[in-house]
């Protein structure tokens, strides 16, 4: 079961883009055993004394467990921005994104007017097997009313998720008829490859949204499918990808590099955390033209992969400077079921670059993306200044820089025409989701009969459709902004069309429409003919 997550694709607003990125990304997952205890006994004793004194003598009753959690988090905040503590209650949810699956009933839902509406039953899940349909309304879970009571997405997730094999009773309203289903929860796959398709007769496109446990398997299947479709060159889209497991990035890099190339190396205080990854003889796309798309939301494992391909002169990197996270975390299990994610090393690209941006000033680190926007870096490549001491040279003589993210070979400025406050409000109020869901349901048969390619080429969002969206927004208390709608009519049309495509043809339909406004992809498509010279500057 998953909430409809259209909003993350709606508008690229830089001031919203990276809130939470610094806390959310981490690279590497290793199994570790605690090393021998060091001389911290006196410090631990002092902490125990204070905690005992509070518990026994403080004027009010306090939750000492919460105090300990807060103290641990405060202590980690003194180290770096990415070491983190996750209490036992939150640990499952925190790890879920990277496991590649979760336990639930297998529906994608949205909430319209306090009503939970099934957008789709996920393929292969228990809800699909029982016949739950798009448009069904979930009104009760285990006989508890969940309709018309101000229900929020977390309430739904909490009610429907649960361990595999457990049973939940779900009451569906279909038309005017109530239907009770007893659903046995199961593993529901989460996909980290959003989409793969042929942009033209020779160019494949793969978008990866994170590096989870199943990412390489998904990527390899996508690559195989595209090669069978005649792919000769590839665009790998890592925009907004916050990272994940380092080994997934290494395996993907190996698909593009010939044997014996350095991919990444790590260095820590403890030698056991030092490592070096080299490419193997395995590789299904070692020679075709390759372009990698990055932006300020590409972090961590995304930077390992793009850095390895840039440093080995294997790919052109196109877009804007990436996030700048070069610290490796490892999970450590604590006795109460909680988890410590501790930074144990730094990673370096093949030329020796550290991608980690400075983090001595915690406030400055958290404001970095906003500062880049305000400083003009999203709009002008020459606003970025690198210290010459951070200059490195690739085997083919190209200059690359460390010290804070991967700087692309070709800079693409942010297109501010893709930003719309009014459109953002329509998404936030679920108005655009409600309108496009209803339109897709009403016109489903005729649109699917014509097929997606016909829809992509011939379907136009009319003025009447725009006006209908405005009215849905008004019902959801969104004040119309007709001036913005008029000035940015094309933007609104693309979003409406993309959302209808998503309802009928899933992500493959959605992204093919939305990529009409993907300015970094559009620029990349113009650069393929320049790749041979650009990857070997000595020939110029």
Automatic annotation (TrEMBL):
<dbReference type="Pfam" id="PF13180">
    <property type="entry name" value="PDZ_2"/>
</dbReference>
<keyword id="KW-0645">Protease</keyword>
<dbReference type="Pfam" id="PF22694">
    <property type="entry name" value="CtpB_N-like"/>
</dbReference>
<dbReference type="GO" id="GO:0004175">
    <property type="term" value="F:endopeptidase activity"/>
</dbReference>
<dbReference type="GO" id="GO:0008236">
    <property type="term" value="F:serine-type peptidase activity"/>
</dbReference>
<dbReference type="InterPro" id="IPR055210">
    <property type="entry name" value="CtpA/B_N"/>
</dbReference>
<dbReference type="GO" id="GO:0006508">
    <property type="term" value="P:proteolysis"/>
</dbReference>
<dbReference type="InterPro" id="IPR004447">
    <property type="entry name" value="Peptidase_S41A"/>
</dbReference>
<keyword id="KW-0720">Serine protease</keyword>
<dbReference type="InterPro" id="IPR001478">
    <property type="entry name" value="PDZ"/>
</dbReference>
<dbReference type="InterPro" id="IPR005151">
    <property type="entry name" value="Tail-specific_protease"/>
</dbReference>
<dbReference type="InterPro" id="IPR036034">
    <property type="entry name" value="PDZ_sf"/>
</dbReference>
<dbReference type="GO" id="GO:0030288">
    <property type="term" value="C:outer membrane-bounded periplasmic space"/>
</dbReference>
<dbReference type="Pfam" id="PF03572">
    <property type="entry name" value="Peptidase_S41"/>
</dbReference>
<dbReference type="GO" id="GO:0007165">
    <property type="term" value="P:signal transduction"/>
</dbReference>
<comment type="similarity">
    <text>Belongs to the peptidase S41A family.</text>
</comment>
<keyword id="KW-0378">Hydrolase</keyword>
<feature type="domain" description="PDZ">
    <location>
        <begin position="91"/>
        <end position="187"/>
    </location>
</feature>
<protein>
    <submittedName>
        <fullName>S41 family peptidase</fullName>
    </submittedName>
</protein>
<dbReference type="InterPro" id="IPR029045">
    <property type="entry name" value="ClpP/crotonase-like_dom_sf"/>
</dbReference>
